[in-house]
Design a protein that fits this description.
With 84 residues, this protein is an all-beta fold. Strand 3 and strand 4 form a beta hairpin. The radius of gyration is 13 Å and the shape is globular.
Length: 84
């Protein structure tokens, strides 16, 4: 399953305040906040035993502006606007 990772390390993101999904939501205090995708393993494991099943929601470690780090599902993240 190539291309399952929608965000890259050091990319700026905004944590959504609501999501249609219920996968690994952020804590209430960081909803709407800005952050940066933290360094993590985002290799493409297609064709191996580590390949993600179709429909698996990817999670990311996000360093929230202010210093806290949270594990958040991709359906709670969106790209930050330019300059944010």
């Amino acid at each position: 399953m190539a291309g399952v990772y929608n965000f890259q390390v050091n990319q700026r993101v905004r944590i959504k305040t609501a999501s249609e999904g219920n996968h690994k939501p952020p804590t209430e205090s960081v909803k709407g906040a800005l952050g940066t995708i933290a360094p993590q393993m985002t290799d493409d494991w297609a064709g191996t035993l580590l390949e993600l099943d179709s429909g698996t929601i990817v999670t990311y470690y996000v360093v929230i502006d202010g210093g806290a780090t949270e594990l958040i599902a991709a359906d709670w993240l969106e790209r930050a606007s330019a300059g944010e």
